[in-house]
Design goal:
Length: 270
């Protein structure tokens, strides 16, 4: 039976220049491969070693990029290796098959959101009313499914995110702070649900996963084995769970370690 490997992308497998965490002397820095270009500028990277490992992984397991990014944002990424048959975007709101949205899956997601949590408009309006324009740089609605703010972290009041999380919890939503972005996401909108559907379709009996943020916790808990890097929301809060390995590496070298662990575990299954 195939092994399914579901991995978050940003700050798990791929890294912006600000997130690389290259703390070693310049002469010992790893060679990097650009895997995303936006507006004619390089945006995201992985190490060349990680790129080769990911190519090997694509030949060994069912690799599924699993991201909170919108479809448009995801499609800017050019990962090494065979093109994934499946991908998960918008935190599970869109299941892509050969790059095309599965409309039946998306319709089912919309029905669950309508039944189980407060409307997007209510949450987005609350964000706009309660956030201070002094530290908000952008506000966005993603795929008509969730909302997020881009903020100046050094100006963000310490308790504001916690207060927002309590408000959202009572309405069936989750709040996650990732770098300069504050996400508000409906609780039923999960990566794990989409991963389970792909496992059903592929016949995979074992799932491996990795992620760095609160929005990845359900994905990690749903996997048979998982990894989190030494940075991000989960590391900052000391989040752990059975079968989840907390790696010491931070930045782009954590991404390399994660792909190495994926490949080793997938080959053990063989």
């Amino acid at each position: 039976m195939p092994v399914l490997v579901a991995s978050d992308l940003d700050r798990t497998l791929i890294y912006s220049s600000a997130a690389l965490a290259l703390t070693m002397p310049d002469a010992r820095a790893p060679r990097l491969l650009c895997v995303e270009v936006h507006e004619a500028k390089p945006l995201s990277y992985m190490t060349e070693t990680a790129a080769q490992l990911l190519t090997d992984l694509g030949d060994t397991a069912v690799f599924v990029p699993t991201t909170t990014r919108t479809r448009k944002q995801y499609q800017r990424i050019n990962l090494p290796g065979p093109p994934p048959t499946y991908a998960i975007c918008a935190n599970g709101g869109h299941l892509l098959v050969d790059g095309v949205t599965d409309t039946d899956w998306h319709s089912g997601v919309l029905a669950r959101l309508a039944d189980e949590c407060a409307p997007l408009a209510e949450v987005h309006d609350h964000l706009l009313r309660s956030a201070d324009p002094a530290w908000v740089r952008k506000h966005r609605i993603a795929e008509d499914l969730f909302t997020y703010l881009v903020v100046e972290r050094e100006l963000l009041p310490e308790d504001w995110v916690k207060e927002l999380a309590v408000w959202a919890e009572n309405r069936g939503w989750t709040v996650s702070l990732q770098g300069r972005k504050i996400y508000a996401v409906p609780k039923p909108l999960t990566k794990s649900a989409a991963v389970r559907e792909i496992a059903r379709r592929t016949g995979a009996e074992r799932t491996l996963a990795a992620g760095d943020s609160l929005l990845d916790a359900d994905l990690l808990l749903a996997a048979d084995r998982g990894w989190r890097p030494g940075h991000g929301e989960l590391a900052d809060t000391g989040w752990t769970a059975p079968e989840i390995s907390a790696l010491p590496e931070r930045g782009v070298l954590a991404g390399e370690r994660i792909v190495r662990e994926f490949l080793r575990a997938a080959r053990q299954q063989d």
